[in-house]
Protein: 1-deoxy-D-xylulose 5-phosphate reductoisomerase
Organism: Sulfitobacter sabulilitoris
Amino acid sequence: MPRRVSIFGATGSIGQNTIDLIARAPGDYTVVALTGATNIDRLARDARALNAQIAITAHDDLLADLRAALSGTGIEVAAGARAVEEAASRPADWVMSAIVGHAGLAPGLAALRQGATLALANKESLVCAGALMLGTARAHNARILPVDSEHSAVFQALTGEDMAAVERVIITASGGAFRDWPIEDLAAATPGQAATHPNWEMGQRITIDSASMFNKAMEVIETREFFGVDPDQIEVLVHPESMVHALVGFRDGALMAHVGPADMRHAIGYALHWPERRHIPVERLDLAAIGSLSFRPPDDTRWPALRLARDVMAMGGLAGAVFNAAKECALDGFIAGRITFPEMAQVVETVLDRIATRGGHIDATMTLDNVAQADHVARQEARAVIEKRAG
Ligand code: NDP
Ligand code: MG
């Protein structure tokens, strides 16, 4: 029986890599739902090629375009955030969660509620609502498999191991586009410069988040949520070559490292085929040719986002949702040229401080509504802070 798969965020970087793997073995899969947002041509092309049951754009006003692009194919079409969430409730065995941002949370929860295995690339889900995601998975006997490369690496290093024997988890960071820039030059950095990654090909937002280390800050929180380790057991190591993705340190002194090429198809394929390991067409590393790998500690002055991640974990509750929302707005502000690169972290810190001081939102029970409310309040606050700075 072919496996029923759905891909949320099919038109993005992770979505396209997922489709690349699925299209190599078409007989193994039945494609239920594919979703996108603005890229209607790509969504329609892939829905046709994979013979999807339904194609959905998150944008209501693009429904007519999608319908026209798929007319005569028999493929259902729909539009809007609600339709995306509904599509996640359609029975599927394996669901890729690769929408970018907070918008990925509700569809991921819907997929878990129907008992699907959720391949989780959308790190915002765990940052904003880790306990809700894990609790929903448990309640519905569903499984979450990590797709973020560092977390896939940790997951693989932990296979067959006892969590009680784990002393520390180390995730690596390339350092992004500005790793070696003089700190005083960062205020003049442009979004175009920030969106160029030394090793990974990724979407624009996560690439800029790599340069600011907000991506790594999110991943530290993701590590805590997913593996249940204490904040002080999580370390970040700058590793410019991006070949060692993570390491797990055990109480007998052993460090298990996961080494592989900077190609997301490995982590996606691992989650797709788990618990098997099947052939994946990624580059095979020639360590003799590479010669050496380097590591250094991260610098909190250059990358204040890492310090903020520690603050968020100490606050607990819905601080992750506030952090993520403020970060998304700060990133929008930087991309729009309203604030500078270093100001992104300042905006996030100010928003966290203000909302924490006011109380209420961070301590609220973790429900989807309360997470949405914390997200909303943090965005309002962030926009106000950005307006003030942009003058
Ligand atoms: P992209 O920006 O390349 O793709 C994002 C996808 O989400 C696209 O399909 C886009 O549609 C869709 N989308 C955008 N906004 C909305 C919305 N409001 N509602 C529904 N769908 C929307 O991102 P990536 O593929 O790089 O990243 C996806 C997720 O995976 C992110 O959470 C990221 O942090 C995470 N991740 C990515 C990695 C990578 O290597 N790229 C590595 C690890 C994690 P459209 O393009 O049609 O507008
Ligand atoms: Mg990652």
